[in-house]
Amino acid sequence: MFAEKRVAPHDARMEAVHHHFRRNLNDIVSATTEAGAKVLLCTVATNLRHCAPFASMHRPDLEPAERQHWDRLYQEGVAAESAGDYQAAVARYLEARQ
Questions:
Q1: Per residue in 5-29, is it b (16+ CB within 10 Å) or e — as a string?
Q2: Within 10 Å of residue 53's Cβ, how many Cβ atoms?
Q3: Distance CA 13, CA 88 (A)
Q4: What is the mean pLDDT of residues 8-12?
Q5: Is residue 45 over pLDDT 80?
Q6: d(C-alpha 40, C-alpha 43), whole Å
Q7: What share of the chain is helix, strand, coil (3-state, %, to 5)?
Q8: φ, ψ for residue 50 (rounded to 5)?
Q9: Coil, helix or strand at residue 40
């Protein structure tokens, strides 16, 4: 249901997603402080690529040849990461992001 409602980073709706997220967080903090509870907010390390509405998606105008190039760079990054060559992995991931 909600998991299928993904919004790409470049999507015009992302601004509304961030607005709703911020409003919901503010409402949660208000409700807890009004109840007398102490609130601690922090960021946690997480991977949002499978967490709707945030999702890792290719841009809509990506050509098939560009997708193949991206796939190759990504797989090279995965292989380098698996081999413990993190510097090469980061380089491939950054190149793929272009």
A1: ebbbeebeeeeeeeeeeeeeeeeee
A2: 20
A3: 34
A4: 81
A5: no
A6: 10
A7: 60, 0, 40
A8: -110, 15
A9: coil
Per DSSP, 49 falls in state G
One-letter identity of residue 11: D
Phi-psi region of 88 (alpha: psi -120 to 50; beta: other; left: phi over 0): alpha
**Tens-place pLDDT, residues 13-22:** 889 989 998 9
The single-letter DSSP state of residue 63 is -
Give the tens place of pLDDT for each residue, 61-90. Answer: 889 999 999 999 999 999 999 999 999 999
| CB contact at 8 A, 92 and 82 | no
What is the spatial distance between Cα 61 and Cα 78, in angstroms, rounded to a whole number? 25
